[in-house]
Structures are given as structure tokens and as C-alpha cells.
Amino acid sequence: MRRERTDAARNRAKILAAAEAIVAARGVQGLSMAEVAAAAGVGVGTLYRRFGDRSGLAYALIDAREREFQAAFVEGPPPLGPGAEPAERARAFLRALTDRTVEQLDLLLMAETAGPTARFGGAYDAYHAHLVMLIGLARPEADAYCLADALLAPLAAPLLAQRLRGCGVAVERVKSALDELLAGVLAR
């Protein structure tokens, strides 16, 4: 794989920081390629060559956070990372995933509704495999594969957006419900 040039990496970081600031201030709908380019101090052509279009830029924003999140649960400190008991890690994971989803809810909502199976693959597969492993360690006799899907379902961006914004459910309430669901899954 070819390494990214230093100036290209610097531009990418500036572009992503500018795009994050715009999304934080005005939401995904406010994400304009021309504004991002101006805020980052790069040409619009650079932005289009690098990301293709607005959705490519949105996916790059998701990817940057996603890499940080996956590093935290794969190799970070416990309880999210290795070193804690499987049940404790699963609880920390679901709570951190809730925060991670809420943090980029509009971007994830756009990504997860792009097509019928847009939510699945990539990050979902990593989350699913992680939970399958943890459930399998905590309850070897359980159907970890299907139970992992049950634990991830409440964190689908469209459902979470509806509960938080449409129904006024607090994030802590979602986390508490996931704690209860996990306790039921891990009960013998």
C-alpha cells in the first residue's frame, strides 16, 4: 500500500477538522463542499478529488471516529479493552457504542439509511464479532451469534434517533436498558 504524502495527510486532517466543525454547528444538512474547502484552506477541486462528493466526505468523518473506537475496544485499557471480565467488557462496549453512535448520529443515520443493508458489513461486523466473542466467553452454551444482533439492534441509528429526538428518551435510559438486556443475555 502506498503511503500518503505528508502534505496530503495534513490537508486531509484540516479538511476533516473543518467538516467536523461544520457538522457540529449545522448538522449534516449544512455540510457544503465549498464551505469545507474554504474553512480548511484548500481548493474545492482538492476536496472533490480526495472524497468524491459530500457523502464521501461524510463517510470519511465516520471512518476517522470509527478507527478510534475500534482501537479502544480491541487494544485500549479495560474495561472497554482487554483485561476485564467478558461481561464487564460487553457492558463497557455497549455503553461506549451508544456514546459513539450519539456523537455522530446524523452522519450514521445518513449512512445506515443509504440502502436496505447499508447498516451491515464493516463496522457492524466488527461490533458483532466482538460481542459474539464476549458472549461466547461468558456463556459458551448460548447462541452468541443471534444474541449479539439482539444487543446491537437498539443502537441502529434510525431507531436511536427516533427514541432520542422523537420520544425524548435520555441517552442514560438507553444505556440502562442495554445493561438490563445484557444481564438477561448473560444470565444462566
List keywords for this structure.
mainly alpha; Tetracycline Repressor, domain 2; 10 helices; 73% helix
General description of the model:
The structure is a single chain. The protein is mostly helical. It has two domains: 1-52, Arc Repressor Mutant, subunit A (Orthogonal Bundle), CATH 1.10.10.60; 60-186, Tetracycline Repressor, domain 2 (Orthogonal Bundle), CATH 1.10.357. The chain is 73% helix and 0% strand. It is built from ten helices and no strands. It has helices spanning 6-26, 33-40, 44-51, 54-75, 86-103, 105-112, 122-138, 144-152, 157-166, 171-186. Helix 4 runs antiparallel to helix 5 (86-103). The protein is elongated, with a radius of gyration of 18 Å.
Give start-end ranges of low-pLDDT stretches: none
Residues in helix, %: over 70%
Tally of distinct domains: 2
Structural Rg: 18 Å
Largest sheet: none
* CATH architectural arrangement of the largest domain: Orthogonal Bundle
SSE pattern, N- to C-terminal: HHHHHHHHHH
Question: β content, as a range?
Answer: under 5%
Could you give the distance between the termini? 47 Å
Strand tally: 0
Q: Quickly count the helices.
A: 10
Helix- and strand-based class?
mainly alpha
CATH class annotation of the largest domain: Mainly Alpha
Mean pLDDT across residues = 92
Q: Could you name the CATH topology of the largest domain?
A: Tetracycline Repressor, domain 2
Q: What is the approximate shape?
A: elongated
